[in-house]
Amino acid sequence: MSDEDPANVADADLPEDVDAPEDVEPETMDSEVEEAAKTVPRGVPLRVEGLRKEFGGITAVDGATFEVEAGSLTGLIGPNGAGKSTTFNCITGVHRADGGEVYFRGEDVTGLRPHTIAQRGLVRTFQIARQLGEMTVLENVMLAPGGQSGESIARSVLPGTRGGVVAEERALRDRAWETLEFFELDHLATEYAGNLSGGQRKLLELARAMMTDPDVLLLDEPFAGVNPTLEEKLLDQLHELREQGLTFLLVEHDMDLIMENCEHVIVMHQGRVLDEGPPEQIRNSEEVIEAYLGGEV
Question: Are 104 and 117 within 8 A, CB to CB?
Fold first, then answer.
């Protein structure tokens, strides 16, 4: 079995070269932060304000500011090195921002640990899908939610508590099966996750993310390496989930996919937000054409 702590999807999916930040500030808000949080408009669950991140003197994110509206499928695009993944990492606590704020549902979550942010409903996936390869697909999905009673040895063995643990696990198993059926992975429930194809792993990662009950889901290149059939299936599922009220922020290099599926597009270049708006506006933006599309639309 993997040495990773599978208690929650945010920690289980951390890239190998990234550690959760150790020097985070206490998870409290002073009066100034509370006043700022009140200014976040209703219907905007995620707001990024002046976000900044440096690595060894190199500025990867330089004052990025944008909002993601509730129930939207918003695209975040830009050339390699534009700062998209670093922005994701700062939003979700994988990296600690050097400046700026991240508001989620009106609350400042800047600097909180990844698992704390995920538990509040702001969840992400990574470019390279990572699962517990020596466990089955069903087990991977069941492990995603945090705070399970069965994680406590005492609750699992003490008289009078085991019955509740068993009932909770049964309910969790039923929910996991429903999630696998939604993503059409139920036929692979007993397969080891390490044996899945690249596209199937992407679906499994999304299934695991959904088991955490997210309000906003950040997807980092979810279609990379996915064959056209699985890509179409995944897109259909994203649209269905959005219709159910889930909000998405999507990083993707396929411009056609972004323009055809996102109603709002944010363009980053050299760590900054270059432009944002509906797809047609982005297609016709001279700045975007020059910086990102190489002079072609």
Answer: yes
Closest CA to 229 of 197, 260, 256, 207: 197
DSSP assignment of 175-236 equals: HHHHHHHHTT-GGGTTSBGGGS-HHHHHHHHHHHHHTT--SEEEEESTTTT--HHHHHHHHH
What confidence tens digit (pLDDT) does each residue in 224-250 have? Answer: 878 888 888 889 989 999 999 999 999
Per-residue DSSP letter, 120: T
CA pair distance 115, 177, nearest whole angstrom: 24
Q: In 3D, which of 274, 228, 292 has the Cα closest to residue 62?
A: 274
Closest CA to 269 of 74, 79, 68, 54: 79
Dump pLDDT digits (tens) for 44-87.
Answer: 999 999 999 999 889 999 999 999 999 999 999 998 889 999 99
